[in-house]
Amino acid sequence: MTVVVxxxxxxxxxxxxxxxxxxxxxxxxxxxxxxxxxxxxxxxxCAICFAGDTDFAYPMMLQFVLAIxxxxxxxxxxxxxxxxxxxALKVFDAMANKVYTPIPDMKIPDVSFLLGGYSWxxxxxxxxxxxxxxxxxRFEFENSxxxxxxxxxxxxxxRAKDLRNRxxxxxxxxxxxxxxxxxxxxxxxxxxxVLRDLLRETKNSDSIGGPPQLLKVYxxxxxxxxxxxxxxRESNKITLLGRPLLGYERPDNxxxxxxxxxTVNPLxxxxxx
Length: 273
Description:
This protein has about 270 residues and is an alpha+beta fold. About 20% of the residues lie in helices and about 30% in strands. It has helices at about 55-70, 70-75, 85-95, 160-175, 190-200, and strands spanning about 5-10, 15-20, 25, 30, 40, 45-50, 110-120, 125-135, 140-145, 145, 150-155, 215-220, 220-225, 230, 240, 245, 255, 265.
């Protein structure tokens, strides 16, 4: 299973970014702790992430990515990001209708997706959760909602409730420590920090685990995965979308220290064998 969180973060009064973070574990009799769960689309203004049954999630997510690539206006952002949501629903519905099994429960897609990106028409980030409605027998979407008074955020996965409760506790504690003169602020990097701490507590028997995956979508219409030192900066081990990089690999993007939240130039990290 999975835990995933997506939110927007203000950098300045006029600039913000969209972040999607998740774990890296696929399980089912064995654990694979280097599995990519969030994918940037080639149009570069958005990304999609899944939670749930990988038998449904992977083929549906990959076919959606291929569908976007197959049509030039969609691939080159001539179609605004908001217009591809309905196409995602249609692709997922069509694939769900192609499932054949004598066991009724196995025909139900136990999966959800978070789809987020930047709309050049509306000049804002959009974020939706797409999940299957058993009663209507179709996929539907829901918009991101405000988490109390801390900003818009979405969760998915079997540990989503746990992550949400931990995040609310963290934000409330931070707010209580603020002075009366300090203005209230919205979510910054706290969702990633809470996910980081949750993953450090996991065991092999848990449904989530592995390194945290992080992807950012910028207002300059670029979706970029963020390399992360894991389990710590001191380990000198770099992961990218869950996969530990080989000793000679160096990513183009600066690497996130999961504890200080500072980024490190990849040229400053020595190669290892």
